Amino acid sequence: MKNPLFTHPSFRYFFLSRIASAVANQMMMVILAWQMYDLTDSAWDLGLVGLAQFLPSLVLTLVAGQVADRLDRRLVMAWCLGAQMTITVFLVAGTMQGWLSRDAILLASVALGIAKAFQMPTQQALAPQLVPAAVLPRALATVSSGTQAAVILGPAIGGFVYVAGAQVVYLLSGVLFAAAITAMLCIRIQEAPRPREPVTLQTLFAGIDYIWRRKDILGAISLDLFAVLLGGAVALLPIYAKDILHVGPWGLGLLRGAPAVGALVMSIYLAQRPIMRNAGKVMFGSVALYGVAILVFAVSTSFLLSLVALALSGMFDMVSVVIRQSLVQLDTPNDMRGRVSAVNSVFIGASNQLGEFESGVTAAWFGAVPSVLIGGLGTLAIVAAWIKLFPSLARRDRLVSPS
Prior knowledge:
The chain is an all-alpha fold and 403 residues long. The protein is built from 17 helices and no strands. It has helices at 9-40, 43-59, 61-70, 73-97, 102-126, 136-161, 166-185, 201-204, 206-213, 215-231, 237-244, 249-272, 279-299, 303-330, 337-366, 368-389, 391-395. The radius of gyration is 20 Å and the shape is globular. The two termini are 35 Å apart. The model has no long low-confidence stretch (mean pLDDT 80).
């Protein structure tokens, strides 16, 4: 059955751009992590790769939000994708000429963090402009399903193409970024002129103030932040692949893609049957199950069981992602979406990149398995605490704001 969302031409181009850029980014990151661990054999350095990507988004949050609300979001996205394509050229040159060192990888990670600091809030703010509000949750689930399919392919392709050399992986990523730029520039949006209010402290911090006053949004994004920050194991996958499960780069690619398999299955389901009732209960339940899946992965010494546990973690996390994104976009007016999405992006970045740093540090202190175990238990503790701290979110029935 044809998805009616694709009758909107701009949504089609946005969808294609997201897929191409997601494949490119995942291919690049899985090989970047492998090269770092191959060079240094250090969990700490793996964590630094995540930290190097997160810090720019933290520093640039307020600026990125202003840019997303004041400039043409299509062009901002094109510039961000172009910056990432340029980074692939740097990585190709460094790999082929033999000077890609630990410091060069960290420098590339910082540059990626700067590009993503502007890309993520702009991307989130652009999506609601492409479809009617009534079908936005379904549109977000559809984009997520396509993105997760790309995330599955990216690490797997990266792991297998690595046989021909890391430079080939980076080169292919650059080609896909170019395709993503082309698709993004094909988007056409008719919108009213945006107000040109002067930049003040009030406008800079408007996104933070808005989220603070909307407790359901604050609870949803902070729940995702702490649950994934503690329960994330992505940064330690090279250690699991090499030292615990004893598989090579191909196995690392499959492990990294496994959460996306589960996320893809769930996002396809949610695109067809969006969450209509009991949104709060569903969200808290899915995050708790995510923590259980991480605990199973932590103690597994079976490659197959590890793949299943990671796939389930991606499936349960996708439920939380769709609910959180829907709440943020549906409860936020268009002229505020850039600034609110910028703050949301910091939470997402903290849960992912900062979570990788946290995993690397705890693994350096206690070992990889205890680190992931502590994270899974921490996720369950966060769920229990957030039910008490944000009772209105736990009781929330519908995604559409009741106000």
